[in-house]
Amino acid sequence: MTLSRRTLLRASGGLAIALPLVSTGCSLSDRSTTTGKSLESAINLPAKYERALPIPKKLRPVRSDDTTDYFEIVQRAEQQEIVPGTTTSVWGYDGTFPGPTIESRSGRRTVVRHRNELPVPTVVHLHGARTSPEHDGYPIDLVLPAGGGGHGGHSHMAGGDISEGQRTYVYPMRQRASTLWYHDHRMDFTGPAVWRGLAGFHIVRDDEEEALGLPSGDREVPLMICDRAFESDGSFKYPARDDSLMGDPGVEEEYLDGVLGDVMLVNGAPWPVFEVAATTYRFRILNASNARRLELGLDPAPDDGFIQIGSDGGLLGSPVTHDSIPIAQAERFDVVIDFSGYDLGDEITMTNDAGDDDMAEVMRFRVVRKAPKPEPIPDTLADLRAYEELKEADAEVTRKFDFDQDGERDGMDMWTINGKLFDVDRIDAKPARDSVEIWELSSDPAHPIHLHQVPFKVLSRNKNDDEPLATDAGWKDTIDLKEGETARILVKFDSYPGKYVLHCHNLEHEDMAMMANFEIV
Ligand code: C2O
Ligand code: CU
Ligand code: CU
Questions:
Q1: How many Å apart are CA 310 and CA 307, to the nearest integer?
Q2: 186 close to ligand 1 (CB < 6 Angstrom)
Q3: What pTM, to 2 d.p., does this model score?
């Protein structure tokens, strides 16, 4: 693993200024390096490719009417066998990790009532959703435990819109078909809560997409990839400063850069195997790790590699093929893999070129059935005119956001945006509704940056000769910045007015203040 400049500076102590950075070579900063420190599990690591890939269950609406589908979820602790032979207490939506998959129809309202039976307050955020601020899961809009229990945390949490025991979130779903995910978002404690299991898929469908004849049913598979570590009793290991998650926020100082695990999970199973027919499959890939970046590959690779059909914000205009896909925390890639060129019995490993040893492997596909020749993927997937026509010249304002480590809280280093710690009362940008702005994001070390509410278009990256990457195509809501990189994004604020957050999606950075407010006015 390469060291970030920040780590080098810290390691070199007082000699920071004199450190000859050039000697490390420029390749350091051109790789999307994982920012974080790995935990070591206290159990024997589970064997690879023995467990079948679990598919999260689909949540049925409790009722539907002309305009709306209503869902209910209970957040609770439950024992789950993640590592064979041991049980882990997960905090799950409906007691499962990943949570159940919710499906919405574009244009139909989705209402989800969450009841909190966990011992701590929670907040639900639907990542990628367009909804009004009171339903976006603002970090201090707490849902207090149904069984009673305090607010937890610090005084800077005051002022939120507090609910007792349960809260109903409303999503108008006036947005394109896309792969969203819901996860906990409580102020200062998102990292440990997601680590314990509070994450699930939420898929939006529409007619445009269904007309394409993409692989569906058993051949449309969500893949939630994340790393974890385990204690000797099977529980999740996490270096929280306070294990109750009600007192001091954040992690032990040596994990300030982020928490990595040594077990790779897909849909909650370690290094699983998925049996496929020799045909095409659609995979909705999400990196739900706290701090781990992935660079996915296939070995042996099919002719077309990954055929990317969608990004964070839904289908691309036409497919783009990649040999490997860098996927940072919270990003989604919607891909088709064509297994028709393999023989029965072939095994294809999904690799992670950003990881070492065990973490260099993710899961395996095993070809077990013949299948008729697959339908080709259409050359035109979606009408992306709104995306293509969005031009730099439309922007009236340029704003700069610098992601760095320039502050302190309670004597501990903290992550900052423009040198400032998150403050719920400070608005850092007030874009006008429907206006277009260029946001210039710069980063040290690497940070995956996420904007709530408004999808964006990547305009340029200085580490790629000012061009976007091939994997930046389509609407994005999260962009991974390499160390020392400046990227420019074009954002159209055509959404509900109000206050939303932008933040780093390295969850330890987020919990340690790397968040800011913008208000659409
Ligand atoms: Cu996926 Cu503000 O988060
Ligand atoms: Cu979000
Ligand atoms: Cu960060």
A1: 9
A2: no
A3: 0.93
